[in-house]
Amino acid sequence: MTLRILAVDDSLTMREMLRQTLTEAGFDVMLAEDGVDALHRLPDADPDLILTDLNMPKMDGFGLIDAVRKGDVAPRVPILVLTTESATSLKERARSAGATGWITKPFDEVSLVSTIRRVAAV
Amino acid sequence: MRATGSATDPNVRELVAFRTARQDFCVDILSVREIRGWSRPALLPHAPHYVQGVINLRGAVVPILDLARRLGLEPIEDTDRNVIIVAAIQNRIVGLLVEAVTDILTVPSSGVQPTPDLASETTRNMLRGVVVQDSRLIRLLDVGQLLPQDVEPAA
Amino acid sequence: MAGLIDLRDIFFVEADELLSALEEGLRAIQTGAHDTDTVNAVFRAVHSIKGGAGAFDLKALVGFAHRFETVLDALRAGKLQPEPALLGGLLHASDHLADMISAARQGNATDPEHDERVIAALEQHAGGGGSKEEEAFVFEPLALDGPFGIDAVRLPLPSGTRDVTLTFRPHAGAFASGHDPCLLLRDLCADDPAEVCLDQSALPDANSFDPGQSYLGWKVILQTERTDPQLLAIFEFIDGICDLTIASAAPPIPDVAASLPPPSSPPLAPVPSAPPIPANTAPAQTSAPPAAAVSPAAGTGPRPTIRVDIDRVDRLVDILGELVIHQAMLTEAIEQSPGFGSVEVDRSLDQLRQLSRQIQESVMAIRAQPVKPLFDRMHRIVREASMAAGKAARLVTEGEATEVDKTIIERLADPLTHMIRNAVDHGLEKPSRRTDLGKPSEGVIKLAAAHRSGRIVITVQDDGAGIDREKVRQIAIDKGLVAASAELTPQEIDALLFLPGFSTATEVSALSGRGVGMDVVRSEIAGLGGRVGITSVRGLGTTLTISLPLTLAVLDGMVFVAAGQTLVLPVSAIIETLRPEPGMRHSLGQADSVLDVRGRCMPLIDVGMALGFRRSLQPGEGEIVVVVERGDDGAIALMVDGIRDQRQVVIKGLEANYGQIPGIAAATVLGDGSVALILDPTDLAASGQSPSRPVSPLAAE
Predict the structure, then answer these.
(1) Which of B25, B89, C111, C328 could join C671 in a cystine, given CB atoms 3.0 to 4.6 angstroms apart?
(2) CA distance linking residue C501 with residue B153, whole number of Å
């Protein structure tokens, strides 16, 4: 079975990039534009992993993680955050918010895929 | 297809010959899109006197020029037997109203002679030369000169 | 890569959107909106540009955006106040960012020194407040997310295996954060010989079992060449929410270590694949909080959109045009056939009409776009033009939501830019002069869009000096454009500005000079089937008005007859149709007459005569009057011979094969295949009122 990934980013460029990279790597990809959009899509998407940007309008990545963790749709789904900062404080914040791990942008396909494989499996 | 026929041999020209106002004219076949029967055009306001109006040519609105009037010749009779030569001039499509198409001529390039001096000034400007065929003097039109210079496309 | 959309293209399209969001937000802050949402949106725009630029390795852009973002971050955090000087710097940086992006799009780069000047100036404005407390952004293209600097130490490894003993016990929070110990153990053991022992000693009896708790631990004995940091890296994500110990039982002594048996320990059951029971079954349905945030309200989410190649839409528009023509032909054929009048046929025809209209509206809606992005671009033009001309100016926009066909919007950018520059350059006075005159030193350029009479009307209005008609007239005479003896009305003088080669600027301006005059604007607008008009009040300002068709495809037309010609009027312009009583008509002077419609007087024009199709009226002609709107809120009465019907007509341009005709907007093809001209009532009124026609460079004759 293919790993299903819900990728959340407000930037169309990033969404397209994620869609292409992840699709080529053999994953099933669903996209959302922000935290609110992601929450709406979550039940149908039923992802094995959520990949989310942090800085987004409407509901940011922290808000999304919190809502997923406290919700009843897939509270224990692995969530990786995408961040341009390598700052440890952001990682700490992500971890305490309930993120499973993080990926620093810009990323390459190899590190993206290997990080996904580290935290999610079908 | 005809276009390629003449294009392959640069020394030969194919010309569409026609009559209007009792004179013989011809145009290069490369500029002719089609020849069709006359249909009543819609009048254009504020148009030069030789612009008859516009017709619908498969969805495109095409102006019709009365060639006789354009050349300052006496006007031709308004009948259903007149034909329209649809020509591409620069980037525009224009219909030339004439009395009848008479022939398709194939002449060597050397067969086109300079316009004789006796032609009137108006006419001279619009001719590229003349072709003599079967003792007839056929005027080769410079279609690019037929459009009124003050009616430029907007673009 | 076939089938994949070019990511670069997407990035640049998105960057354009982000840039206008950035600029718009900065302008909002400038006018006092200093709320969190606005500042966040501005920050996010630069942030997203940085992110995208990083993906394409556009280093200069990333560096610039990062420093820009740092200042915005300080603004966001309240460490900086939106003082005018800072905002000026921010706007300048945003303009420069736009330049950098457009250079990058063409594969070029801006001058690095210039980049540096702009951003350094901004940082200057920001003072010290702009430095982020977090560590400086280090540009690392396509970096492997190597924790603990692992990548750096991976290569210089002394060969030789050693025995490592790890104990690992995830906390309950680890499962809550989506961690799966199985995956960690898998990565830990990887290709190395390993012994994994499950420690379930903490497991309580079934009664006191809490699925939300973690009871399992593992002990792993590994024969590996990997260093401790490498092994620890596997646990990077779970660090802090597990207990982890690592011990090298034997120091890496080659040969010896390898031959040693595993350190003695109680026989443990190897459980490489033992599922940690609580991990996946833990989400206890009973204990889950209500979590209103997650329950999705169906149907309220953002609607999905697709991006379609514009050629496909254009093709649809073409087909639609044919459909409308053939529908008219079919209707005409049926109406002349013996079967006409049957209810079924009638109903079907009606259905067909409605469907074709719905298709048309849907297709047009696809092509329609608000003018906002176009208007947004003009702010920068005003900023730059006023800076270059030493003037103070502000752009005010109105009606930004007005939707217009995409093609029209695209082709409006150049003429509009020119008009705006012109307004700043030639329209507005210098600040000192304005102060002398008692005007605010900052001039206002108002850019507005609205729908009127089925057309879109765009106005560019300045509150400057107005047209100096005496000067304009003199220049026109000097340049030989008009005779010295010519008697010109103020409107005719204003129209001189549109003559080719006319320029009122005594010195050639760096901005609106370059030999490009208003005549170019006029011909560009005319190419879109539009018109430009100018009005001016001395001392109060000048207004340029562009009137454009809404779409370039279809309109609702009233088909009528005048002087034996079948013609079409846009229904949207028609106010009413009437058969006037003799007493309603009054003559003014020799030729002009007005019609009194319930106390409202309006010019009365015979369409046939205005178009030059007849010189006088015969009995039975011109007896029906169609009252139509004129662009400036007035009305005119058009005399026609008869009204045929009302229907949709496909707009066919005359420009391509012929040229512009005064009073005529376009042509169409009727059901019988013949051509009918579509009237432009406003323009017709102008040509009808003065048959000699004032200066009008685009008139055919």
Answers:
(1) C328
(2) 19
A46 and C CB contact within 8 Å: no
C654 touches chain B (CB under 8 A): yes
Q: Which residues lie across from C605 on neighbouring strands?
A: C638
Touch between chain C and chain A (3+ CB pairs, < 8 Å)? Answer: yes
Range of the domain at B68: 2-143
Q: How confident is the model at residue C688 (pLDDT cuts 50, 70, 90)?
A: very low
Of all residues in chain C, the one with the smallest CA distance to B45 is C611
Question: Are C402 and C525 found together in one domain?
Answer: yes
The number of domains in chain B is 1
What is the percentage of chain C residues whose pLDDT exceeds 70?
79
Going by C-beta distance under 8 Å and a sequence separation of 6 or more, which residues neighbour residue C170?
Answer: C179, C181, C214, C216, C238, C241, C242, C276
- A36 interfaces chain C, CB cutoff of 8 Å: yes
ipTM comes to 0.83
Which pTM was predicted? 0.48
Last residue of some domain: C302, C335, C369? C369
Both structure tokens of C206 = 């079934």
pLDDT per residue as tens digits for the range A3-30: 899 999 988 888 888 888 888 888 999 9
Q: Is residue B150 part of a domain?
A: no
Q: What long-range pairs does C113-116 form, CB within 8 A, spacing at least 24?
A: C115/C60, C115/C63, C115/C64
Residue type, C522: R
Range with the poorest average pLDDT among C357-366, C396-405, C423-432, C501-510: C501-510
Clarify whether residues C384 and C475 are in a common domain.
yes
Q: Answer yes or no: do C237 and A119 touch at CB < 8 A.
A: yes
Q: Identify the closest residue of chain C to B48 by CA–CA distance.
A: C701
Question: CATH code at C362?
Answer: 1.10.287
Model confidence at C251: pLDDT above 80: no
Gyration radius of chain B over CA positions = 15
Does C661 map to a domain? yes
Interface contact C565-B42, CB threshold 8 A: yes
